[in-house]
Amino acid sequence: MKNILIASTSTLHNGSYLEYLLPELQLFFGGCSEIIFIPYARPSGISHDDYTQKVGEAFSKINIQVKGIHEFEDPITAIKNAKGIFTGGGNTFLLVSQLYKNNVIDTLERVVKTGTPYLGTSAGSNICGLTMHTTNDMPIVYPPSFRTLGFVSFNINPHYLDPIAGSTHMGETRETRINEFHHFNPQPVIGLREGSWLAVKGESIKLKGELTARIFKRNEIPYEVTPETELKDLK
Amino acid sequence: MKNILIASTSTLHNGSYLEYLLPELQLFFGGCSEIIFIPYARPSGISHDDYTQKVGEAFSKINIQVKGIHEFEDPITAIKNAKGIFTGGGNTFLLVSQLYKNNVIDTLERVVKTGTPYLGTSAGSNICGLTMHTTNDMPIVYPPSFRTLGFVSFNINPHYLDPIAGSTHMGETRETRINEFHHFNPQPVIGLREGSWLAVKGESIKLKGELTARIFKRNEIPYEVTPETELKDLK
């Protein structure tokens, strides 16, 4: 049975790393004394070791040990044996490239679809969708594919931003970008604002946190959904 | 001799399409009665025909006819025979995919490097750099390569945005993204603010417009350059 948290962001403004999620994570990973962390997305180019240490410090507050996937000789076996998995944010292009390069993407998909608890934040949430076509990140490396893990039957847009009233900037709004995506791709997209997450339990997918989320379907007017909305039919 | 304008944006806030550039374009394309427009980037998913019509209306003010590359049976021959070329903005992933798919990228590179006047705005400017790794766009389609035209020996970041003071949003700033790029790529990046453009004439590359631009080099502190700065040694 799938057991997945898909969070828009790791960190809220004025909060510390993972702080707002820790009460939820204590329940979610309850019973795991150690989880595996996938640091491949390397925010600001931080090293795998430094990133893993940062995550370890956050999880130590709820008495969970963290080991980086790069510390294992065989990452595939590490994923197979993991009691829980967390993929952190950073650059989605880099993350997806590394998942393919290290040949762990199929194993990761299989173990999470069959029950290993998985937490994603930001880039680690992007990859829970069908593809990474709706990431906000800069394409700093060229991945072998944009196909991702498909834990849900739609795409994720984390750090969703509403158009800024009065902005004089001429770059595209997030909504314009997702509209362009729908000219070439059929699947719905959920815009998850910072502070929101999806809780996937078996077939159920529920919006969590205090904010609404925005749903974009091809050829339809986007709309908001409220916390606790069941999203299993979004596909 | 190369003769290229690389503009951050087509349109300024409160201005009409290409309005701020028209006096410059009148000089730049002087002597061309017709140019070819490449509408592949399709902003907001606009059709090739509609996009070409919009561009034609702007260029009619300076008595230049515009024909879309999609109107020609053989786009390669069209590029070879063009008296001037304009590639408009939209989605860089889509633009680059279409340049490869229609097999025009090599011809476009060759004719512009040997003298056909070329104007790019936004996505059409991104492709003037060595690669499209520093685009701001959403990866709505998967191009066969991120390699682009290399009219200059660095990368372009159009619509450059300074960090927003007081922002509570946790997504990466533009500077953070370019810093991540430099962990994996050696070439400098120029952040071109809206209203700025580069004028390439032969070996010379000068910053134009009223604003400074921001230069990012690997392992160096970013710095500003003023209008009329010669950038031919940026590589």
From TrEMBL, chains A, B:
The keyword Protease applies. Pfam families: Peptidase_S51 (PF03575). CDD domains: GAT1_Peptidase_E. It comes from the Bacteria. Its EC number is 3.4.13.21. It is an enzyme of class 3 (hydrolase). InterPro entries: Class_I_gatase-like, Peptidase_S51. One of its GO terms (molecular function) is dipeptidase activity. Coiled coil: none annotated. Keywords: Dipeptidase, Hydrolase, Protease, Serine protease. PANTHER family: ALPHA-ASPARTYL DIPEPTIDASE, PROTEASE S51 ALPHA-ASPARTYL DIPEPTIDASE. NCBIfam families: PRK05282.1. Belongs to the peptidase S51 family. This is Dipeptidase PepE. It comes from Flavobacterium ardleyense.
